[in-house]
Amino acid sequence: MTITTKVAAEPVAAEPAAKAARITGLGKSFGPNVVLDGIDLDIAAGEIVALVGRSGSGKSTLLRVIGGLETADRGSVTVDAQPTFAFQEARLIPWLPVVRNVALGRPRPRNRRRDQEFARTVLEQVGLRERADAWPLTLSGGEAQRVALARALVANPRLLLLDEPFGALDALTRLSMHELLLGLHAEHGFGVLLVTHDVTEAVTLADRVLVLDDGRIADEVAIDPPRPRSHSAPEGAGYITRLLALLGVRA
Length: 251
What we know:
Helix content is about 30%, strand content about 25%. With about 250 residues, the chain is of the alpha/beta class. The strands form 2 sheets. Strands 6-7-8-4-9-10 form a 6-stranded mixed β-sheet, with helices on both faces. A 4-stranded mixed β-sheet has the order 1-5-2-3, covered by helices on one side. α5 links the parallel β7 (about 160-165) and β8 (about 190-195). It starts with a strand and ends in a 5-residue tail after the last helix.
């Protein structure tokens, strides 16, 4: 069965039991290689879910299918509004200033003046209002990722799909981006599905961590301590050790 995606026409207030996404029986192959094999997953409204797994386990493919960038061979995806993406590469258009890059994330029909005004508001939320008219090539790596995050948020998403967006950043910038993401999440209440190779990042940010193996959800770990969290705390270290063990890594 081919994948179906249902999108709500108008935003509605999130209810406690509301779902940002429901994935049922999802399967995807590339030639003879099975990449996703019967994935079932619910993401609650406002929930942060992290996906970890070895390279080739299907993490990015799952994200791309949920976001409509790939078509599944079978199963269904139901989302209540179109998800938005942020990737490891900021993917900014170099000949457009920052504000116009961000405004590209606005849904159609577009109004250039209104969209750019809203883009400046979101740039202020990510701490870059003063860089609105800068060119992408003048940005630092952290600034470029903030712009990419602003572009994803400018559509008022209910589900944000993050494919290792902080993987190429230095340690201090990554911590700053974690704080920014959690602050924006607390303010706007969108759901998040985060692909990461960093189990420390997963434990710091997520409500649940899913371990993918050979295209299947092999394990799920609920992260109970409230945010903000310190991975150096004993309970944080315990979650990290457990996840590394599930991934076959000896801590």
